[in-house]
Amino acid sequence: MSIVYHLPILITVAPLAVAVLLSILLNLNRRVVYPLSLLTMFFCFVSAIFVALGVLKGGAFVYYMSNWPPPWGIELLIDNITAFILLLITFVGFFVFIFSKPYVKKELEKEKAPFYYILTLLLLGSMTGFVISGDIFNMFIFFEILSLSSYSLVAIAGDKEALRAGFKYLVMGVISSLFVLLGLGFIYSVTGTLNVSQIASWVRSSSDLTVVYTGALFLIVAFVIEAALFPMHIWLPQAHGKAPAPVSAVLSGLVIGVGVVGIIKVIYYILPIVYSAEFIILFRVLATIGIVFGAIFALFESDLKVLLAQSSISQIGFAAIGVFLFSYLGLAGSMLQILNHALAKSALFFGAGAIIYRTGFRKLDEMRGIGKKMPITMGFFAISLASIAGIPMTCGFASKYYLCFAAIRQGLWGMVGAILLGSFLSILYCIRIINCIFFEEPESEAEVLEAPLEMLIPLGVLSLFSLLFGLFPKMAFVLIEPGVKELLVLLR
Amino acid sequence: MMITRVFSNLIYVASMILFLIGFYAVALRPNLIKKIIGINIMETSIFLFLIGIGNRKGGAAPLIVDGVKNYVNPLPQAVVLMALVVGVGTTALALILAVKLFEREEEEQL
Amino acid sequence: MNQNMVSVLPIVAVFLPGAIGVAILFAGENKKLREFLSILASVCSFLMVLAMYFILSKGEVIECNFADFGFNLFLCLRTDWLGLFFAMLTACLWLVSIPYALKYMEKKFFNSGARFFGFFTLSASFAVGVTLAGNMLTLFIFYGLLTFSTYPLVIHSETSTAIRAAKNYLIYLMAGESVLLFAVLATIGFGSSQSFARVGVMFGVEPRILLFVFMMYVVGFGVKAAVFPFSNWLPMVSVAPTPVTGLLHAVAVVNMGVYGIMRVILNVFSLKLVQSMGIGFLLIIISSITIIYGSLMALRQDDFKRRLAFSTVAYVSYPILGMALLNPSAFIGGLFLLVTHAFLKLALFFCAGAIDVQTGKNKISELSGVGQKLQVVGTLFTIGSLGLIGTPLTPGFVGKWYLWRAPLETNQPGIIGVLIIGSVLCALYLLYVVYTLFFKRLDDNLVFGDKLSYWISFPIGAGVFGGLVFGIFPKILLSIINPMVIYYFGG
């Protein structure tokens, strides 16, 4: 087997190992922290490209750690969907690191900066681990690392609001991870294994599924909390709104997307029979309601970052309904939406971060006319906003289009209505922001500089990518199409 | 009938009751320390549940000793061990957050 | 009869001006460059459309697919006679209005010229894109882009009224577009094929669903065509700079709504299906109400541009009425009136803008006797008004004559009544303005600007002239309309 075979585990282990290493090196030399972590992320990104190419060429593969077969060893599962998500996480993660440099320097105290980078590395590394791991127990462990590092990152600023948001997030997160543990226990008690594919084959051949359904319910609820789907979203606006901007970009752009991937893992990989259970319809309905409600919350929010966080609730609802539709179109729309949300919402938080960096403004009212003062930054910001709103020719339009089409195909008219209403409302809150930053008179004449290059590049690249995938969705489908087909094969 | 069923599954019933107690503390108590205690109670209840799954009547500890045939399942125990570690970490973090919050609030009052 | 030809010409016709529009956005405050690019874009688009006209008149339909979404969803541009008709109209009037826009903006607004002309060019090229779209999905996408690109134009003055108007504009149109997206998806979901075809694409669909989808289309396109319950946005956006109200909101945007309804009836559902379902009746009622409602509201307005905007609401419903009658003669009449309206209403709006530039007055009650001073503008306004009312020798007359024939043949006195009332009201609200301009006493305190620039008076003249040519020589227009009639109505 070629080196590609070993790369996925490296993508996970490298950031975690470097994080541990750095926390030791920290005492010797603080300066190495940033370059080393940036380098690690770059390595991960390049490796993810190779993994994606390898999967495209050679198909999905399974990796046994130190060649121990399951149920004793640890199994990694790499297929097109995981390769796609890996690529997304490392790509956005790399730009998060580039963006963080000036932001952290200005907004965080000096002694906190190295810990910020270490925690971000842990967060990104555990996310990749969660995506590729092939047994529930590892998923649980990575989920815990992910949660712990994100609680700390939310609270890292150390002011009262950030601490409060962090604590709230922690409480919800702990409940969520305990549910994972509980679901894991239920499933183990009947199947006798924690390995994903073994559970799947047990489930396919078994007839009494009550216990498995219970376990599945716990697992899905756990990931629903993590993905912040309605009505489990209450922790999200504060946590994502009060965290440092690049952290919000990771949390909003990637972590809740990974929550949706968790749901996909439960429904498609681990328990490919739950799609026939009645309670799935409940989640479908909740996700549909979430689309509309999140957008309504966002309409009345005055703090820009909290507004963006509220909109995440609605956007991730779009990604989730596709998962609960169990059709090619729905899943493809869902994947596109995860992609769109990762690119555009991260870029939006970068933009909000750039405004905070230059002016310290957080409220929408204070930002009047800022688009005239920093036209390039806000121009990219507007492109991402268009993608979130789902304006034609952006990635957001493509994803919503697919989801709507899928719902029509399956005759779910209520869902079609909710999708259209949700997109309509998202256009409204996006227009509210656009109005404020471009068309209203600034309150003061003070000059504001463009964002520094380290901030402008990530913002520009991510927003242009969301435009690119909107113009040529086929490019994204290189990985999405075979991946979604693989998922649907699992269901049969 | 009901009573015997409850008694034969006593460990699960106990863990469920513990879980609910913990959940009550987390969800309804405003005091942060009580919330943290609630989290710990919930965690413990789930550990109990997992150990209960792996238990076998009259089973010995999963160590290879001559003449012992009946072991309890070691895997849930391993899971619980890991989860314990994670739980300690979470509790520590939660306590730090609570202490910091307390300090900030005191600063404000002064 | 028709051959299909694959060519990138439609793509160039849409995206080259679009790219120039983006370039204008980046040109910044370089005024010379901006003016040059704006003119270049409109000339480009005009020449492309003209080239396509010659190809089409040789009997070849140009078609090209350019973005494949997979799953049988693709974007495609295609020129047939109906599309080209609207494309020519848009490109022509775009060319006419650019000099006016350049001069007007220089006189009235001093901020953000790059933004204005960038989005002006973009929206005009998206309007051309709508007309050249080859399937519903493409049409919808350009249609949405048209809405968004006109938004910065409506809000241009950045006053609180403008911001409120722009917000309402977007809410109206986006609500319409959400409904439209639903209808488009339902069409693709239920229909058997996607490209526009004469026989329609809705086969074997349950009548209930057909009716539902049709209603959705009527609402979706109706919002843009400003039919009765959804017409309030149009007068509201008359706060935008006059070139925008003139070109986009009297011509491009509302015409795209009409165009969409025509496409739905002719290509999505097919005439036969609509006839058998009897749903044309619905459109007849809606458009009749709109004609009378718009005319009555226009009578009540004192604001010059608002009066013209309500007149637009009324007038745009004539082509819808002509389409809904499902009769070749009414169809021809409708298209005639559409062209009349496009040219003349553009000229009338430009007259209002010119008077505004010269006197700073927007209210009709303040314009007593202004025509005595501004004779050129006043005269052109009078001729334009007569054309819209439908006096002989104007295209309005020809159009109304064709339109009247259909209800006369099929004996529908109600529609004739609507047409008569519409014309009488139209005469009232336009001639009252003419009366004010020429026969009321001039207010001596009124201050007039310098001599009117040719850049402003010439486009007005061109608009009126364009309208009159088709009135005197209707053959020119008929040569484009006839192939359509033959294609859809079978001779």
What does this structure look like?
The complex is a heterotrimer of chains A (492), B (110) and C (491). Chain A is mainly alpha-helical and 492 residues long. Helix content of chain A is 77%, strand content 2%. Chain A has a two-stranded antiparallel sheet with strand order 1-2. The radius of gyration of chain A is 21 Å and the shape is globular. The model of chain A has no long low-confidence stretch (mean pLDDT 88). Chain B has helices at 2-8, 10-28, 32-54, 74-109. In chain C, strands 1-2-3 form a 3-stranded mixed β-sheet. In chain C, a hairpin with a 2-residue loop joins strand 2 and strand 3. In chain C, helix 12 (304-324) runs antiparallel to helix 13. Chains in contact: A-B, A-C. The A-C interface holds A 328-329, 332, 386, 391-393, 397-398, 401, 404-405, 408-409, 416-417, 420-421, 423-424, 427-428, 431, 435, 438-441, 471-474, 477, 481 and C 67-71, 73, 140-142, 144-145, 148, 151-152, 155, 158, 163, 166-167, 170-171, 174-175, 178-179, 181-182, 185-186, 188-189.
Task: Summarize this structure briefly.
The complex is a heterotrimer of chains A (about 500), B (about 110) and C (about 500). Chain A has about 500 residues and is mostly helical.
CATH class category of chain B:
Mainly Alpha
Largest interface: A-C, 34 and 31 residues
**Strand percentage of chain B, roughly?**
under 5%
Strand order within the widest beta sheet of chain C: 1-2-3
What CATH calls the topology of chain B is Helix Hairpins
Number of strands of chain C: 3
Descriptors for this entry?
heterotrimer; A: 492 residues; mainly alpha; two-stranded antiparallel sheet; B: 110 residues; Helix Hairpins
Can you lay out the helices and strands and say which pair or pack?
The complex is a heterotrimer of chains A (492), B (110) and C (491).
Chain A: H1 7-25, H2 33-58, E1 61-64, E2 75-78, H3 80-107, H4 113-132, H5 136-155, H6 160-191, H7 196-205, H8 210-227, H9 236-242, H10 245-270, H11 279-299, H12 304-323, H13 328-359, H14 370-373, H15 375-389, H16 395-409, H17 413-439, H18 453-471, H19 473-491
Antiparallel strand pairs in A: 1-2
Chain B: H1 2-8, H2 10-28, H3 32-54, H4 74-109
Chain C: E1 3-6, H1 9-27, H2 31-57, E2 60-70, E3 73-79, H3 81-108, H4 113-132, H5 136-154, H6 160-190, H7 207-224, H8 233-236, H9 242-269, H10 271-277, H11 280-300, H12 304-324, H13 328-359, H14 370-373, H15 375-389, H16 395-410, H17 413-439, H18 454-472, H19 474-489
Parallel strand pairs in C: 1-2
Antiparallel strand pairs in C: 2-3
